[in-house]
Structures are given as C-alpha cells and as structure tokens.
Amino acid sequence: MTRIDAHQHFWLLAARQGSWPPPELAAIHRDFVPPDLAPQLAAHGIDGTVLVQSMPNEDDTRFMLGLADHHAFIKAVVGWTDMKALNAAARIAALAAHPLLRGLRPMLQDLDEDGWIDDPRLDAAVAAMLAHGLVFDALVLPRHLAPLLAFARRHPELPIVIDHAAKPDMAGGVPPAWRADMAQLAALPNVHCKLSGMVTEAGPEWTVAQLQPYVDHLLDVFGPARLIWGSDWPVLELAASYADWIEASAALLAGLDEGQRQAVLGLNAVRFYRLAAGQA
Q1: Quick one: which of 173, 176, 111, 179 has its CA closest to 139?
Q2: How many angstroms separate the CA atoms of 70 and 61, rounded?
Q3: Which of 196, 200, 192 minimizes the C-alpha distance to 270?
Q4: Conformational region of residue 57, where left means phi above 0, alpha means psi within -120 to 50, and beta covers everything else
Q5: Which of 50, 59, 157, 169 would be 6's cystine partner, CB 3.0–4.6 Å?
Q6: ω before 234 within 30° of 0 (cis)?
Q7: Quick check: is 280 in a domain?
Q8: Can you give the residue range of the structural domain that contains 181?
Q9: Phi and psi at residue 24, in whole multiples of 5°?
C-alpha cells in the first residue's frame, strides 16, 4: 500500500525573523528538519511526503527545494511566489525549473482582503502554472470559500486542493454554511480537499467522534477519489502526535473499503501531485 503524507512543513527559526510560530507555541517553536520527521515516516510506513511552504517568500521555497534535493522521502514541494506580481509568469517559470516543484500556495488565510483570490489579475500566473504542470493549494478559512469558488470556476483546468478542509469551526457542531460552501466547491471536478489539520482546529481535547461528522461530509461531497490525507506536521504537535493522527485517521476512514482507503491515504496524492512511478 502506497502511503503519502501530502502536507508537512520544515522550518528554521533563524530564517523566520520573528514570524509565526510565536514563542508561546512552545511545542513547535524550534527548528524542524528532515531528521526530525524521518523516524515517524519509517515507523508508520509512510513512503514519502509533500513539503508545503510556510512563509510568503521565495527564499522559503528555495530552502524546501534544497531539502528535497538531499532527502529522498520529499517527493514534491508546494512553494510560494507573488501571483499578482507583474513578472509572476517569469517567477513561476524560474521556480518550476526544479523538477520537484509541483504546486504553489498563496497564504490566503493571512491576507487582509478576503476576496484576494477572486481577481482576473491572477490569470497570467494561472496560465504559467498550467504551462508548468503546477497545482494550487488553497490555504483558506471558511470566509474565503465563496471567492475560492469563483476562482475555481474561472479556472476549471487548474487542479485545486483545499488545505485542512478550510479550517471550519469545530466547537459547536458542523456549521451549515461550511457544509454548503464545501458542497459547492466539491461539485467542481478540479477541486480536491485535504484530510489534514483537523485536530489542531479541534484543540487538545479533540476526539474521533468530534471529527467524524466533518470527515463524513467531506467523503459525501468529494468522494474518496478527491480526498487527500496529510498530517500538517509539525503543526500537528500542538494537539496530537504523529501516531495519534495515524490512529485517528484509520478510525475516521473505517467505513471505506480497502481500495478507497488506499486512494485517500496515498494514491490520490500520487495522482494529484504527479509523483512519478517508483517515487512513492
């Protein structure tokens, strides 16, 4: 069985110049590098990972691509560039010269303008992404889902994945607006969703029973063929261990047949991020 962790991060605090994570998040306020994650992957039979940006600058992307050059378990990198820059197409081409760059992720959740993504000024960047075979990771909150829907409809050929199920409020039951917005996005065949980041949103006292209605809705609207598993490590460490999330994921997906579980836990990531045969 191919297992891919389709969402994880590495960082060096010295390169972050006081940006997130802050010191009060003691569990993750340190450097995280490949030797920290490799034992977890080996222990749980994870064949490879997708390394995702965590800072809105190209230096972070180049740092990740450098790590990918030296650590074979990193199968793909999702980076960052200013997609509204006048030279966005050239910037994307330069980054995409590295064969393991497979996607881009603007940090929409941190932008002041909720509708930033619903803008024709992104058309040139999207055209460049398509020319270089890149996908779009959408780091969004529920308030961004309507603009993301407009963007996805404008670019039906662009593969899009919603990170962390758009981080719904998990304190008081499944929000009806989130249910409806995710269903609308799932109706577009180019949109996928990551089964990741949920325990952090639920908090340290999370339970499988608390998460199950959200996962059930995602499975209902996206189906097992467009749901992609990831850990969001090391952010995961704020609420759970890697082993905890592995165990919870098995319980959350227990209603699927073996082929469907294999799709969610690895094969969908192989397809979406174009991992080469033998890479995983």
Answers
A1: 111
A2: 15
A3: 192
A4: beta
A5: 50
A6: yes
A7: no
A8: 4-272
A9: -70, -20
Beta strand ranges found along the chain (DSSP E): 4-8, 48-52, 74-79, 101-104, 135-138, 160-162, 191-195, 227-229
Domain assignment present for residue 104? The answer is yes
Structurally, how many domains does the chain consist of? 1
CATH at 171: 3.20.20.140
Q: Is the distance from CB of 142 to CB of 175 less than 8 angstroms?
A: yes
Nearest residue to 274 (alpha-carbon basis) of 149, 154, 140, 161: 161
Least confident of 75-79, 172-176, 231-235: 172-176
For residues 154 and 124, is the Cβ–Cβ distance under 8 A?
no
Q: How many CA atoms lie within 13 A of 96 on its CB side?
A: 18
The model's pLDDT over 7-53, given as tens digits with 9 standing for 90+, comes to 999 999 999 988 899 999 999 999 999 999 999 999 999 999 999 99
**What does pTM read for this prediction?**
0.97
